[in-house]
Amino acid sequence: MTTDQSHDELHAMAKRREVRLVPGSLVNLLEFDLASLTAFCELLGEKRFRAVQLFRWIHQRGCANFEDMSDLAKSLRQKLKGVSEIRPMTVVSQHISSDGTIKWLFDVGGGNVIESVFIPEDDRGTLCISTQAGCAMGCRFCSTGHQGFSRNLTTGEIIGQLWFAEHFLRKHLQRDERVISNAVMMGMGEPLQNYAALVPALRMMLDDHAYGLSRRRVTVSTSGLVRKMDLLGLECPVALAVSLHAPNNTLRDYLVPLNIKHPLEELMPACVSYLAHAPRDFVTFEYCMLDAVNDTDALAIELVQLVKHYGHSVSWCKFNLIPFNPFPASGLHRSKPERVLAFARILSDSGITTTIRKTRGDDIDAACGQLAGDVVDRTRVAVRIARQRSAEPAAALLAATTVAKV
Fold first, then answer.
1. Helix (H), strand (E) at residue 84
2. Residues 167-176: tens digit of each pLDDT
3. What are the distances in angstroms from CA 254 to CA 121, 198, 294, 328?
4. pTM value?
5. Vertex 291, ends 289 and 293: CA angle to 5°?
6. Residue 221 to residue 192: CA distance in whole angstroms
7. In percent, how much of the chain has pLDDT > 90?
8. 405 within a domain of the structure (yes/no)
9. Where are the alpha helices (DSSP H) in 177-315?
10. Residues with catalytic function
């Protein structure tokens, strides 16, 4: 194969995997899971074991310089330098919270900046990963959604957040063993709307030659793209968290506009079906606690009825109640602590496993719902939100927060 042929074929393969390419640029190896990296090495005339070696150097050791990959043949290193590179994203800033949470901002080009957050705990280290620059879902309580949407991240930009954070933390903490034990796709964006780039990144997180994370410790959060939920269960089942936030369609239409397309009658059966493939025996429902909107006793009772109706018991799901993190454009307020506790008690007394998420990193705007980065919006989000709010049926919304119905 000539050099020109090599470039052409590698770029064609990259395009099939939806990798963004700049004319004359080198292929970024962070874009490839092991299967793709094996195909890449075969195009270079190399055997599979070379791909495994290269994969380990990149992900287990965090190496970005081919010359440092000492057990690769010199001839292979020369080939790699001619057609490829390991290109991480540029770190714009780093912020460390008083509770140890770390937020990084990454420049992904085109005026877009995304955010990732590391949350240290006694028994785990969790990285919250972004999958899009912005978000098109428009959920009422989410800061990212109020910024609008620019584009999907590539596989390399998704896994690149874990690549950077893991190896930065090892060096910073002077540790040789793995620091990040949990990865949650709960940063900027709707993960399942970027399915093609997400799944290869998930496979790298799970691969023992890369990060070796347990399927139980990798979580995809979705606002309810039911067809992609089904596909994820078949192709790459990991833990699933669903942004529920309301027990009936009227209220959920208001809080999560996607519900208009995929109402609870579609979403709840899809959640139950996912359990056939899931690494855990439950689906997590995320529920953002909004003062005088979705936090009444009547709505808690309605949630219990909803869970029983679709699961014939309450053991198939878990609720994670999330204190709302206010931002000016939302017009919403955080539920009072006593109201959250009362709401949780109703769920728990019914037998539903219920937790209240501890707020972390709110002093650096790294808490749940606060990630906003800097996005060049392509969706005229301000116009959409203004139109949505002017059309809000106040009477119907009030009824939705006070009347229990399944």
1. strand 84-85
2. 999 999 888 8
3. 34, 28, 11, 18
4. 0.88
5. 85
6. 8
7. 74
8. no
9. 195-206, 226-235, 249-255, 264-274, 297-311
10. 115, 368
